[in-house]
Write a structure and sequence with these properties.
This protein is α+β, with helices and mostly antiparallel strands. The protein has one helix and three strands. The termini are far apart.
Amino acid sequence: MPIYEYQCTKCGEIFEAFQKVSDEPLTECRFCKARVEKLISHSSFQLKGSGWYLTDYAKRSSSPSGTETSSPGAGPSKPAESGSPAAAGSKASESKV
């Protein structure tokens, strides 16, 4: 439930009230019964930890034009590894020479 601050227009007393968002604002001072005004105060809401700021997100790899986005498995092609049949045949012929 939000905490709202009110100030009395007569005695100047500032007080807080726990109210639902759907509740009507207070109209009467709890000390002198005069009219009150709702104050705009600083929020105590804070975003702590990582992931809340633009710099915390993973950087996307971009193409020179900047229009291409990376997708899983669509990385740059790699040369044939030594475990592939084509690479094994060429290594075998090199070692026999």
